[in-house]
Amino acid sequence: MPIAFVLVDAAGKAVRIADPSGGTTDAAGDFDRFVGGFDAELPVLGRLDVYDDTALPRGQLDALLREVDHLNQLDLKDVERRGLERLVALIEQCRKDPTTTLWCFGD
């Protein structure tokens, strides 16, 4: 099972949002190679435990957006780029709605 980022509401249910690629989504993924591994250039993504579930503190959302911006400068596969676009959409919605939490669900 791949790693997935999911926006969760106060009741613990996944929140559906508009998918930048069309339709709706309640998860972002497809960029597993950047999660875990303690990459110094990716302090948020690099410290996530790929085998555990982690709620991301709101204070890390801006840093996570900077990491996505950094990754978007790299040579990415199309599927990775779409996954990162979904992650940005989830982060932006989480920043707007204080009743939600962004979770990383490990493998």
Strand residues, percent: 15-25%
The structural class is alpha+beta
Strand order of the largest sheet: 4-1-6-5
Number of domains: 1
Helical segment count = 2
Point out poorly predicted stretches: none
Describe this structure in words.
By secondary structure, this protein is an alpha+beta fold. The chain has one domain (4-105). The protein is 28% helix and 20% strand. It has two helices and six strands. The protein has helices at residues 61-71, 78-96, and strands spanning 4-8, 17-18, 24-25, 27-29, 53-56, 101-105. The strands form two sheets. A four-stranded antiparallel β-sheet has the order 4-1-6-5, covered by helices on one side. Strands 2-3 form a two-stranded antiparallel ribbon. Strand 2 and strand 3 form a beta hairpin. Helix 1 (61-71) packs antiparallel against helix 2 (78-96). The chain is globular, with a radius of gyration of 13 Å. The model has no long low-confidence stretch (mean pLDDT 94).
Précis, in short:
By secondary structure, this protein is α+β, with helices and mostly antiparallel strands. It has helices at about 60-70, 80-95; strands spanning about 5-10, 15-20, 25, 25-30, 55, 100-105.
